Amino acid sequence: MTSFKTPSRTRTRTRALALTALGLAASLCGVSAQAQSCGLNNGKKATGQPIPVGAVVGKTGPDDFSASAGAAAAYFNCVNSNGGIHGRPVDYQVADDQWNPEVAAQVASKLVKDRKVVAMAGNTSFVECGANARLYAQENVMVVAGTGVPRECFFARNYVPLNAGPRVSATIATMYAARQYKAKKIVCVIPNIPSLGNWACEGPKEWGRKNGVEVQTLTIDPGSADPTSVVLQAAAQKPDAILFDVPKGLLVPMLGAAEQQGLGRKIHFLSAAPAYNVEVPKSIGAYWKDNFDTNLEFQPLESKGPDNQNWLAVMDKYGKKDDPRDTFSQAGYLAARLLTETLLKMDPQKIERASVTEALRQVADFRSDILCKPFHIGAGQRHNANNSGPMARSNGAGWTPTEPCLQADDPELADVRADAQKLGQK
Amino acid sequence: MTPNSPMCEPTPRSWARNKLERRLDTLLPFLVSGLGLGAVYALSGMGLVLLYRSSGVLNFAFGAIGAMGAYVAWSVLQQGLGLSWACLAAVATAMALSLGYGRLLAPRLAHRDPSIRSIATLGFALVVMGLTDWLWDEQPRRLNLPTDAGGLEFSTAIGDVRLTTTRLLSLALAALMMLGIGLLLSRTRIGLKMRALANDRELSALLGIRVLQVDGVAWLLSGAFAGVCGLLLANMVRLQATLLTFLVIPAFAAAILGRLSSLPLTVLAGLAIGVLEAVSITWPGYAPYRSATPFLVALLACLFFRNTTRKA
Questions:
Q1: Do B148 and A261 touch (CB under 8 A)?
Q2: Which end of chain B is more exposed for a tag (fewer CB within 10 A), N or C?
Q3: Is A225's CB within 8 Å of B247's CB?
Q4: Is the CB of A232 less than 8 angstroms away from the CB of B33?
Q5: Residue A359 — φ and ψ, nearest 5°?
């Protein structure tokens, strides 16, 4: 016999079920915000023969670029406390290149030749790509880097940055300016740093050429004490938008100078990824509220995605208190996770450099909600698999997301996309 | 007369004049931008000359002292204490640092070679810069002044440009300080003692001049200059300890061009360096390297005023 419940009882039960589900979801969210998942996740400390993994970072020098390695170290600590790589702990060794190419070559040689690392993870340096790319290729060691900046980082066979890089980031911001603000003329401001100034603004330029947008490059001297002349020179080209591809330390005074000259009300201002920092909206002030957009190389730091929450949980439990929670840290976490998951798929007794490099080249579908799209490594001659990113707008106190994911339509990425297709990615 | 008559055709002279006018119109925004910066270089140069003329020390820590003053002002502003307190704190910090060095370390080097006395201030600069970097990390910061909003507007062929009230104040301050310090050194008793000290410390002491006291006044005044310049440069350039520390180089160039004695020449040289650096952004091949401008000027100044530099 079929029984029919009265509507009121059905409503009551539905409500009760909904409340229970909500409660469960809330408690699960609570758990996921605190607990962390990494490696085998079995809670057993790894005690076997250590697996040497290295990293070269620019810690001491003009800026501290060690946040990626800090996050990778936290992740490996978590892995080692949770069964390691089938019982073998990761012995993570980080070396500081002091922003000096000579030191970068010395410390990389020590890690690769003396310490016999099987791979590198979380590297972030302004100088080491140029200094060490050849060594890594010769020694057949793969680098799953956190963040790469100069061109050499994206044009090396054994160097795989997790971030998008200044060229891709600037291209996405240009595409956004053209679509959102109907910009037909854009000035791209870039510092005269070798392998950056003559490369990063070419992406927007080439995209513009194909899409009827005129993009002019203004190469600036980062050491100059005169930001006002930079913004006046950019504004003199009568652009619809000005795009900065400069470090945040230069960006903030340039926006200040633009504000003093009243340019923010006449021209749209945007930036590539370096502007994405929690302090920037507060530093630039109320004038730029809803008036300044930036590209992000990853999903926002406060994203509720499970992997982003896991990154934060890992940092809270296994990281140092003063480790930054920034995009460098997101990149380092992803690099460590990618390497760990690759190692876990291997026979723990056969983990050596050649086999690890081979296994990493097979990575075709690494997924994380921190990334816009699945990430691949493959056997290509260069790597720039992260070439999509969100956009956000300053709200005076932080960033408001405006675009979830935009893919860079840079002609230079044709080979990277072809490699992705070979690996079965759409 | 028809429009095509020879009378209507531009003469080579009027054509050249029109071309020059157009060029000046294009350069005007950068002249305006450079004047403000140049005024602060001029003020810094005067701070250096003032100390040199009294104690014989070329103070390389001038920029670092000003930078720490600017960071203190920023912190005061963050506490919501208002601009007056911030300015006061900046100048007081710079004066305290300068006086501290002038009373504690400088007298111990008073009998050493002038170059050793100057290099010692470079060491002090590095200590102060390191301390500033340690106390305030590398986060991007802005030091806004209420005078940034208003100012004189100019319309040019390449767009509008504003000479902000801050820059106008810097220019006025440079002119006033030039007069004030000139009078102090030439017309007052303390100015006379300062000059005597620079000339011969031992003889001055024998004549009864209280060396430490006069030295202290010079370091104190130089510190006040550093505080004001630090505030203005942090506003116009950026609030970054390293950059502000090494902005002593344009000031040094201005002071050398003023032969370490002439205040009007120092002011003119400071203004010229600021304008030159700003205008050079329009020179295509040189623009990406224009921060070298003050260094080039300093180098040329050292070359042409060898006697002055050697004396320093």
A1: no
A2: N
A3: yes
A4: yes
A5: -65, -40
pLDDT at A5: 38
Q: Which of A192, A217, A250, A260 to mutate to test the interface with B (most CBs of B within 10 A)?
A: A260
- Residues of chain A in contact with residue B287, where contact means CB-CB under 8 angstroms, are 219-221, 233
Mutate to test the interface with B, among A232, A255, A292 (most CBs of B within 10 A): A232
Where does the pLDDT of residue B312 fall: very low under 50, low under 70, confident under 90, or very high at 90 and above?
low
Q: pLDDT exceeding 70 applies to what percent of chain B?
A: 95
Q: Does A286 touch chain B (CB under 8 A)?
A: no
Strand partners, A53: A92, A119
Q: Is residue A278 within 8 Å of residue A398, measured between CB atoms? A: yes
A31-45 b/e (C-beta count within 10 Å ≥ 16 → b): eeeeebebbbeeeee
Pairwise CB contact (< 8 Å): B281 & A223: no
Considering only CB atoms, A224 lies closest to which of B140, B161, B290, namely B290
For A271-312, write each residue's pLDDT tens digit: 999 999 888 999 999 999 999 999 999 999 999 999 999 999
The total number of residues shown for chain B amounts to 312
Neighboring chain B residues of A222 at a CB cutoff of 8 Å: 291
pTM of the model: 0.84
Distances (CA, A) of A100 to A112, A132, B24: 18, 12, 43
Does A394 contact B at CB distance below 8 Å?
no
Q: Residue B205 — left, alpha, or beta (φ > 0 → left; ψ -120 to 50 → alpha)?
A: alpha
Cβ–Cβ gap A262/B160 under 8 Å? yes
Residues 311-340 on A with a CB inside 8 Å of B are none
Interface check A28 vs B, CB under 8 A? no
Instruction: Give the sign of the dihedral formed by CA B37, CA B38, CA B39, CA B43.
Output: positive
ipTM score of the complex?
Answer: 0.84
Alpha helices in A247-383 (DSSP H): 248-260, 280-284, 306-318, 327-344, 353-361
Q: Which of A221, A240, A283 to mutate to test the interface with B (most CBs of B within 10 A)?
A: A221
Which residues in chain A have their CB less than 8 angstroms from residue B34's CB? 226, 229
Residue B280: closest CA among B299, B296, B300, B269: B296
Nearest chain B CA: its distance from A259 CA (Å): 8
Contact A225 B34 (CB under 8 A): no
B151 dihedral zone (left: phi>0; alpha: psi -120 to 50; beta): left
CB B145 within 8 A of CB B169: no
Q: Tell me whether B251 touches chain A (CB under 8 Å).
A: no
Q: How far is A359 from B179, CA to CA, in rounded Å?
A: 75
- Residue A114: which residues within 8 A CB-CB, separation 6 or more? none
Phi-psi region of B112 (alpha: psi -120 to 50; beta: other; left: phi over 0): beta
Residue A195's region, left for phi above 0, alpha for psi from -120 to 50, else beta, is left
The C-alpha of A374 sits at a distance from chain B's nearest C-alpha, in angstroms, of 32
pLDDT (average), residues A143-166: 95
